[in-house]
Amino acid sequence: MKKFLGIIILVLILSGMYVFLANNKFKSTNYDKKVHFSVYEQISSGPKRKYTVIGGETALQLLQKTTNVQKKDVGPNAFIIEINGKKAEQSVREYWAFYVNNKLAEVGAGSYQLKPNDSVLWKVEKY
Q: Rounded to the nearest 5°, which phi and psi values hold at 19?
């Protein structure tokens, strides 16, 4: 009986260790694994370029990483003023707009989290 009880306790301990290690491995994979996306970005009428970004990056982070950007404010409130020397002139009611998958973005570039195969287009528009 003692031997049987010892085997049951050993099985329970090993099962618990397996569940613990499996959960920690899963969590580690979720947080440590770099997820890559293909994102297309086009400035004005320039050529399309393909970039690989790390999961969780925003459209603003990609823009800052790949171009020369001047902006007002930071993070989700950032407002793009100039990209690669091309300024959006407020005096003639221009602004830098960005499109995601051919649709005008509904949030700012600092808020938009890039998704797999997103196509991002930046261009000057009038309001």
A: -60, -45
| Whole-Å CA distances, 113 to 21, 24, 48, 100 | 31, 26, 20, 11
Architecture category of domain 36-126 in CATH: Beta Complex (2.170)
pLDDT (tens digit per residue) in 58-117: 999 988 888 889 988 887 888 899 988 889 888 999 999 888 888 999 999 999 998 888
User: In the chain, what are the domain boundaries?
Assistant: 1-33, 36-126
* Residue 23, pLDDT above cutoff 90: no
Return the number of other C-beta atoms located less than 10 Å from residue 57's C-beta.
Answer: 18
The beta-strand segments (E) located in 16-89 are 36-43, 49-54, 69-72, 79-83, 86-87
